[in-house]
Design a protein that fits this description.
By secondary structure, the chain is α+β, with helices and mostly antiparallel strands. The chain has helices at residues 5-24, 29-52, 59-69, 73-84, 101-109, 229-232, 241-250, and strands spanning 95-96, 120-122, 134-135, 141-144, 174-175, 182-183, 194-200, 203-211, 215-219, 227-228, 254-259, 262-267, 273-276, 290-293, 297-303, 316-321, 340-345. α2 packs antiparallel against α3 and α2 runs parallel beside α4 (73-84). It is globular.
Length: 348
């Protein structure tokens, strides 16, 4: 994710003020640090008010002050940096000795419209796993889409130990654009459980991206490991205005995560994504339903409880950025969508 110019300016001004204060102050250290924390709190309160816009509730300022004064200065600074970066991939965990403060952080700086926070799902990149601590990073939590009950499977720590059934290398794949199936050649793919193809309308852009780790980030600009759509973009491709605009709005994109009960998608962008999966269909199995996933939501896009009912050649997840397709949409086919992904699964 790219930090906005406004956020960068706020951050630079804050550190200029902090430097001038620490350089010029002759007060005792305790007073200096107390004042520095107060400066951090003021910045966070101003960000809370500006992010809420027309929905801002003045009473939440009091709640925010109590919350921030109850945590340490380091944690307040980490929270400020996280909010300024809007949860950019790589933002650190903010660990405190508590079990319920993360709900307050999420309400104040991510979902101010909720009076009571619903059940949240923590993203797997969050490293806090202790029983008596919790992470306060509001961007390490997602709202969940309703989904059918599912069973769990045991996943070993190494992705290479996952049962692999086929090779999805570039030379071995042939996608039939008129159906929901693809053909592959059997082979050893070295621990790859998923391959990602990026499409613009009916043209695939770049090579397949092999996924070996349990979680992969897919975004338009990415500073860490993952699939950077900006880097695989072919400049020779003639893009229409809609495609160019959607690409720009992908931003922080999505996280694709292999978990015990299925394959989860975490929408980190500012636009909705539309998902089609063979395990989320009802009625006509030949054309699975398309599900809309709002920003900040997570969806179990492939339920392992229904895995055995899906033919090997149909184990594919398709998702479109911003534009839906199928019944009820102007675009009838996925190839009508300006920017979309195909997740080719190779899990037995």
């Amino acid at each position: 994710a790219v930090v906005s110019t406004q956020s960068t300016g706020i951050l630079l001004q804050f550190f200029r003020d902090l430097y001038r204060f620490t350089k010029c102050s002759n007060e005792p250290c305790e007073f200096m640090f107390r004042t520095r924390k107060s400066t951090l709190i003021k910045k966070l309160l101003s960000l809370q008010e500006s992010s809420a816009k027309n929905t801002f509730d003045p009473t939440s300022q009091g709640q925010a002050k109590v919350f921030l004064k109850d945590i340490g200065e380091v944690e307040v600074l980490q929270l400020l940096l996280t909010v300024l970066k809007e949860g950019a991939l790589g933002t650190t965990c903010i660990v405190v000795n508590s079990r319920d403060k993360h709900l307050t952080a999420c309400k104040l700086w991510r979902w101010p419209l909720y009076r009571t926070m619903p059940t949240l799902k923590r993203v797997p990149i969050c490293n806090d796993r202790c029983e008596n601590t919790e992470c306060l990073n509001p961007y390490h939590y997602f709202l969940t889409m309703s989904h059918s009950p599912s069973k769990t499977i045991r996943l070993d720590s190494s992705p290479a130990s996952l049962p692999i059934t086929r090779d999805l290398s570039d030379s071995g794949i042939c996608i039939d654009m008129c159906s929901d199936t693809f053909n592959t050649e059997e082979g050893d793919n070295g621990g790859t459980w998923c391959n990602v193809a990026y499409w613009e309308h009916n043209q695939r852009i770049g090579a397949l991206h092999c996924v070996n780790d349990p979680i992969v980030a897919i975004a338009n600009h990415i500073q860490h490991t993952g699939l950077d759509l900006a880097k695989i973009a072919n400049d020779d491709v003639s893009r229409d205005e809609v495609t160019a605009r959607v690409r720009k709005h992908i931003g922080s994109g999505i996280l694709v995560s292999l978990e015990e009960d299925g394959i989860w998608l975490y929408n980190r962008s500012e636009i909705s994504i539309f998902v089609q999966s063979p395990t989320m269909s009802s009625g006509d199995k030949s054309r699975p339903q398309v599900h809309k996933v709002l920003p900040g939501y997570a969806l179990n896009s492939y339920h392992f409880a229904q895995h055995s009912t899906v033919s090997r050649t149909a184990r594919t997840i398709r998702l479109s950025f911003e534009k839906g397709w199928g019944p009820g949409y102007r675009r009838q086919y996925i190839t009508d969508a300006p920017c979309w992904l195909e997740l080719l699964l190779s899990i037995r």
